[in-house]
Amino acid sequence: MLRCTIVQTLDPSTEPHVPSRSSHRRGLREAWAGLASALVDRNVGVVGVSWLVSRLLVVAATLSAESFVSRNPALVGASVGPIISSLTGWDGWWYLGIARNGYHAAPLTGQYHDYAFFPLYPALVRVLSLATPALDGLIAVLLSNVLFLVALWLLYRLTALVLDERRALWSCVLLALFPFSWVFSMAYGESLFLVLSLGSLLAAERGHAGWASVLASLAGLTRLPGVLLLVPLPLILWKRLRDRRRLAWLVLVPLGAALFELYVAQVAGGATAVGGAQAAWGRTGIGAAAAGGGQSLAAMMDPMLATFLMTLLAYVFLLVYLRPDRIPLAYATIPILTLISVFATGNLQSIGRLGMVAFPLIWVLAGRRSRWFRVAWPVVSAALLTTLSVLIFAGWYQP
Fold it and tell me: What secondary structure does DSSP assign to 47-105, as a single string?
């Protein structure tokens, strides 16, 4: 018995297998191949290419505006330099001013207060540029563009979960090339707001009430419409949660906006300071007189106001397809509430970019199946994106 055991032990066929160097190399090659396959995944590629092409169009429009179009002398960028000067213009001037110097009780220009702009985006820019404050304009622009790429990926994940993969990919293409998507390349808070909104809704779809509420609260700290997430989130969570008591997390949703309102009330010495600051841009209600140069619905019609009105009508028209396209009620409320809030201000000046974050409207566009639309609209949309970008960066169209 002992002899048999010794023989078996010495028998090479019974020795444990030790991987050779060649097998290690083969394993590493397989691991790298798997990683490369994930990176070149078709879905990732479509989202990435859509982002890249659309951002290149915006950059090309910026260079064209700076090189071939006479610039509006009233337009001043928050940073100096090619491309960056244009991408930090308009409201970017205010956001970067907040990032550099914080908020002020007194108006900075005329009757305009900087606390009309919410703090999370400029706070991120401030933190990221602590080591290189002279590059804060570049950092703000890069932040917006990177966040837009993240937003497109979140849009794909959410749409594939709620609707289907085909519409998810098409939605990313259409959003990236949409005529008003220039805003996602500027030093604006829209990219961050879209990331937080989509992240909140995706968390809700997966039954994470706490994360959904925290992200929604941060969205409200980025832009006031983040509070509107208080409508779709409970509709989603009601179906996803086994323990309905976790709906109590939703009390956090308006917290971000409420805390900023309290802070501004202390700075400005009034509980209605944020509303008053918004009114300086003419957002004072339907039919109100224009204030600070804003265009209200009661103002005299001009070509630019007519463009804003046509944009509003186009958005409203898309609402007709919400039910035929079987978009869930929770998501149908987002564009409806967004357009109601814009219409209630009486000011259409920013209707194009404000409607961009009402992403279910993109779902409607992505649901169209006619061949002519699939070919024509991306081309038309890209042309409009380029044209509007040139006019905006030259200072002749109000974003």
Answer: HHHHHHHHHHHHHHHHHHHHHHSPPPTT---SS-STTHHHHT-THHHHHHHHHHH---S
